[in-house]
Amino acid sequence: MPLEPRERDLPRIAGALKFYQIASIITGVLLLSLCIEMVMKYAFGLELELGGAYGFLAFVPSDTVQAVNLSIGILIIHGWFYVVYLFSNFRLWSLMRWTFPRLILLALGGVIPFLSFFLETRVAREVHTYLASRAERTASASSAAPTSNSVEASH
Predict the structure, then answer these.
(1) Is the dihedral of CA 56, 62, 67, 71 positive or negative?
(2) What is d(CA 20, CA 97) in angstroms, rounded to the nearest whole number?
(3) What's the structural domain count of the chain?
(4) 12, 40, 98, 151: which has the fewest C-beta neighbours closer than 10 Å?
(5) d(Cα 70, Cα 79) in Å, to the nearest integer?
(6) What is the block-wise mean pLDDT of the chain (155 residues), using blocks of 10 residues?
(7) Comparing C-alpha atoms, which of 79, 101, 106 is closest to residue 90?
């Protein structure tokens, strides 16, 4: 029998899901930027330069970068934001009480291009469906419970 989220954790799940969704999209965009940068660097020998002699933003040969090297910046930013993404994964995973392989799958979203976008959509739909069904079960259980509001009169 799979574990279900604890009753006390239900109010925190929506916030954890929103944090996961934002982190997932940002990490996915940074990963795609990193992939493009790596292709440009290793296939064509170009790096992204900010504010150099070729203009505000330009791909320049690897050995000629004189201004800010955005290729390294993208690498560093993605690496640090991946840590934030992992934290969001862990928070949602622990609140939802999913299995450990599910955490590994979520973590892979930050290192496999496009996977974070697919997972973000799928996880959000699944969590929203679960929360709605849990709310329905709670509402039907509370309406089906007998109420003892009747008062007996005595002389």
Answers:
(1) positive
(2) 15
(3) 1
(4) 151
(5) 14
(6) 81 95 96 94 90 85 86 92 97 95 96 95 95 84 62 59
(7) 106
